[in-house]
Amino acid sequence: MSGAQRISDVLVVGEALVDVVRRPGEEDVVHAGGSPFNVAVGLGRLGVSVELGAQVGADEHGELLRGQLDRADVLLADLAPPPSRTSSAVAVLADDGSASYAFGLTWDPAGPLSASGRAAVHVGSLGIAIEPGATTVSTLVADAAAQGVVVSLDPNVRLSVEPDHARWRELVDRLLPSVTVLKMSDEDAEVLYPGRDLAELVAELAAPGRVVAVTRGGDGAVLGSPAGVVERPGPSVDVADTIGAGDSFMAAMLAWLCDREWPAASELDAGDLESLLTWCSAAATITVGRPGADPPWRAELAPTR
Are 18 and 85 a contacting pair, CB within 8 Å? Predict the structure, then answer.
């Protein structure tokens, strides 16, 4: 759908890349990936009107990304300057399906990007960390918040790209005053807020008026709003790999809120939180059951209402 003339409800900005998945003793497998890319595809598959602002090369890997975006009905804003090659991440899988990453990236969008006409803007991962693009993203986030647009953040910390824990905390702190929907993994939380009890951390971050989730892999997730905190244990599932599971959870959070016309965090009660957590956990569970970042389609999930 690249080039279609419409303004999508949600603008996702950040890296789009290919995951080269490597298992010991097996041939490499290439999947479309990048956390913002995965979130955009997840939103598109869940029926949300979405546009991805990313730098995608005019190469074979770029065509792979464009094809997946088209199939999910995601608009692509090709951000200038065009990269000479599409960014990549080599994901080395352990026996339990968990992944470690090495990256080859370009992130220098000329900007400026606009939040005008959007219901929500989502950012995160390497898009908030790699300069000069990170400054462009920070400006977009501040502009969105000033316009009353919902701002969503998943820091998706990657120490292999930026190893300084304090730098990640600085990046998140710079964006957090504008953020009303926040999702992170327990690994992110340990880098950003080391040693904190996750339920207490969620309550603290949610108190100013945010919806906040911390995913815990096979141990489930914690979700909170100013109304309180709910927890859900992880389901019993055969794990193909964990690539994209957190992104599917994030996309499901935004889709659930979109279905309800973007309520403020203060409007969500305990029953809403249970419904939201059930929906997001189901999306992540489907994703870990199949290889690569392959988020669910709307028909695969129970209705949100």
Answer: no
Picking from 217, 218, 222, 221, the residue whose alpha carbon sits closest to that of residue 205 is 222
One-letter-per-residue 3-state SS of the chain: CCCCCCCCCEEEECCCEEEEEECCCCCCEEEEECHHHHHHHHHHHCCCCEEEEECCCCCHHHHHHHHHHHHCCCEEEECCCCCCCCEEEEEEECCCCCEEEEEECCCCCCCCCCCCCCCEEEEEHHHHCCCCHHHHHHHHHHHHHHCCCEEEEECCCCCCCCCCHHHHHHHHHHHHHHCCEEEEEHHHHHHHCCCCCHHHHHHHHHCCCCEEEEECHHHCEEEEECCEEEEECCCCCCCCCCCCHHHHHHHHHHHHHHHCCCCCHHHCCHHHHHHHHHHHHHHHHHHHCCCCCCCCCHHHCCCCC
The rounded distance, in Å, linking the Cα atoms of 60 and 260 is 39
The full set of domains in the chain, from first to last, is: 10-291 (3.40.1190.20)
Q: Which residue carries 């956390």 as its tokens?
A: 35
Give tens-digit pLDDT for 219-249.
Answer: 999 999 999 999 988 777 777 777 789 999 9
Distance CA 174, CA 270 (A): 30
Q: Give the C-alpha distances (Å, rounded to integers) separating 108 from 81, 85, 111, 288.
A: 7, 13, 9, 32
Q: Sign of the C-alpha dihedral, residues 63, 65, 66, 71?
A: positive
Give the integer Cα–Cα distance in Å for 272 and 266: 11
Residues 73-118: tens digit of each pLDDT: 999 999 999 999 999 988 788 877 777 778 889 999 987 789 999 9
